[in-house]
Amino acid sequence: MAEETLWGKGLALDTIIHGFTVGDDPQVDLALAPHDALGSAAHARMLARVGLLSPTDMRALVTALRSLHDEARAGAFTIRPEQEDGHTALEAALVERVGEPGRRIHLGRSRNDQVQLALRLLLREEVLVLGARAAELAGAFLDFAQAHADKPMPGYTHMRRAMPSTFGLWGTAFAEALLEELEALKGLWARVDRCPLGAAAGFGVPLPIDREYVATLLGFSRVQRSPIDVQNSRGRLETATLSWACSISGGLEKWLWDLALFTTEEFGFITLPDAFTTGSSIMPQKKNPDVVELARGRCRELRGMARQVEEVASGLPSSYHRDFQLLKRPTLTALTSLRELLEVATRLVPVLQIRAEAAARACDDTLYAAHHAFTLAGRGLPFRDAYREVAHQLADGTFRPDRAALTATHLGGAGNLGLEQARAELATSRAWLTDTHRALADCAERIWHP
Q1: Type and span of the H or E element at 311
Q2: Cα 342 from Cα 130, distance rounded (Å)
Q3: Is 280 considered catalytic here?
Q4: What is the spatial distance between Cα 251 and Cα 258, in angstroms, rounded to a whole number?
Q5: Where is 203: in which H helix or E strand?
Q6: Are 9 and 1 in contact (CB under 8 A)?
Q7: Residue 302: its pLDDT value, please?
Q8: Which architecture, in CATH terms, is 112-207+226-362?
Q9: How far is the C-alpha of 95 from the C-alpha of 60, rounded, in Å?
Q10: Fold of the domain built from segment(s) 2-107
C-alpha cells in the first residue's frame, strides 16, 4: 500500500489509520481531476520553458494529460482507495501511459499547491456557471415583472397589509437582488483569480520556476505572491465563495417564503401548476408545494455548509494543515446545491399562475391610508396633521380614499419599475460572464494545442 502513495517510503501502513486519513478524497477528488490535469499540463509547459523538462517529455505529458482531462470530464477517470487522492491517481496514470516522464511531473510543486490550483480552477469555472444561472433567473424575474407590472396586490410589513403594491413591484425586487449579486461576483472573481502554483508546501522551491508564465497560461490575472499566504488562503476563498452563494440564496429564500404564503388557500394570489406540486398519501385533495419548501430548505442548508467550511478553516496557525482536506466536500456540495436551486427557480418563475382578481380583492381601502395622507399633505396640510386626520377617519369609519390620487412614478415605484435599466445592467453582466468564459476556454485550448 505504501508504494501507491506519493509520500510512501516502503514502510507498512496501519489500515485503519490510513483509511481515516484518506477519508473520502478518492470520491471527492473526481470533481477536481479535470482541473488537476489542466493545471498539470500548464506546469509541464513551464518546466520545459525553464529547462527542467525536455520538450519531448513535455509533449508526451501534455498529450496524456489531455486524454485524462477528457476522461475525467466524461466520468471515466477512477481513483483507487489505496491511491489516497486524485493527485496520486493522476501521476500513476501518467507513468502508466508515458513511462518515465510521468515521474517528472511533480518537480517544483507539492500536493499542497497542486490542490490549491485545482480548487482555484474549479472555483473559477463554478462561479461563472452560477453567475450565468443567476443571470438567467434574473431575466425570468424581469419577464414576470413586465408581464404583471400593473396587477395589484397588497404590500406587507410585519406580515400585515400595509400599502398598495403590484406583482410587477414584487417580481422586480428579486431581479434587482440578483443583479446586485452579479455585481458582487466580479469582486469575488478578483479574489479567486490568482494563481497559487509555485508555492509548493508553502515556502517556494529552490528552482528557477516561472510562476508568472503558468499564471498567464491558465488565464489568471496575477500570481498569488506569498507562498505562506497561498496555504493560509485554504478555506478563506472557499468561505468567500460560499458567502456569495448564501447571499444569493438569502434573497431567494424570501421569494420562496412569499410563494409558500401566496399559494395557500387563505391568500390565493398565485397558483402552482399541477406538474410542480405533489400529492398526499392520505388526503386526495392535496396539492403540496414541496418544490417550494425543499428549495427554501436548501437555502438554510447552504448556510450550514458555509458555516462548516468556516469552522474547519478557522482556529489554525499559518501554513498547511491536514484539516483543510475536510473543506472540499462541503464546498463542492454547496456549489452543486446552489446550481440546482437556481435551475429549479428559473423553471418555476415563468409558470406561476397569477390570480389577479383574488389579489385585487385583498387591496381594501385601508391600504390607501398613507396615500390619502400624502394627498392631504399635497394640498398644504403638514404631514403629521394629515396622518392624524386619516387615523381619525379610519377610527370613526369615514375613511374613503381616492385610490387613483397618487401613483408612485419615481424610479423603482409601481408606476416606474425601471425595467429598462435593469435589463441593461443584466446585459452588461451577461457580456462579462460570456467574455470571461471564452477567455478561459481559449487559454485551455492553447495549453492543449499551442
Answers
A1: helix 290-313
A2: 8
A3: yes
A4: 11
A5: none
A6: no
A7: 97
A8: Up-down Bundle (1.20)
A9: 11
A10: Fumarase C; Chain B, domain 1 (1.10.275)
Q: What is the pLDDT of residue 28?
A: 84
Helix (H, G, I), strand (E, B) or coil at 148: coil
247 is a catalytic site residue: no
C-alpha cell, 325: 482536506
The label of the residue with cell 492553447 reads 446
pTM of the model: 0.93
CA distances for 287 relative to 218, 264, 346, angstroms: 50, 10, 21
Q: Which three cell numbers stand for residue 403?
A: 385610490
The three three-digit cell numbers of residue 186, written as one number: 466580479
Contact (CB, 8 A) for 404 and 374: no
CA dihedral 240, 245, 246, 250 (to 10 degrees): 140
Where residue 355 falls (left for φ over 0; alpha for ψ -120 to 50; beta otherwise) is beta
**3-class DSSP state for residue 164?**
strand
CB 341 within 8 A of CB 136: no
CB 274 within 8 A of CB 290: no
Cα–Cα distance for residue pair 298/335, rounded to 1 Å: 11
Residue 223 phi, psi dihedral angles, 5° rounding: -90, 140
327, 313 contact by CB (below 8 A): yes
**Length of the chain (residues):** 450
Dihedral angle sign, alpha carbons of residues 51, 53, 57, 59: negative
Cα angle: 114, vertex 188, 132; to 5 degrees = 100
Tell me what pLDDT residue 8 has. 53
Q: What is the pLDDT of residue 10?
A: 55
Out of 54, 67, 221, 280, the active site residue is: 280
Maximum distance among all Cα pairs of the chain, rounded to whole angstroms: 94
Residue numbers of the chain with a pLDDT score lower than 70? 1-13, 18, 22-23
Residue 220: how many other CB atoms lie within 10 Å: 25
- Cα–Cα distance between 79 and 71 in angstroms, integer? 12
Backbone angles phi, psi at 94, to 5 degrees: -65, -45
Q: Where in the chain is the domain with CATH 1.20.200.10?
A: 112-207+226-362
Question: Which residues lie closer than 8 Å to 239 by C-beta, 6 or more apart?
Answer: 306, 309, 310, 313
Measured in degrees and rounded to the nearest 5, phi and psi for residue 195 equal: -85, 120
What's the confidence (pLDDT) of residue 11?
55
DSSP per-residue string spanning 369-387: HHHHHHHHHHTT--HHHHH
Report CA 50 to chain centroid distance, whole Å.
38
CATH 1.10.275.10 in the chain, residue ranges? 2-107
pLDDT the model gives residue 18 = 66
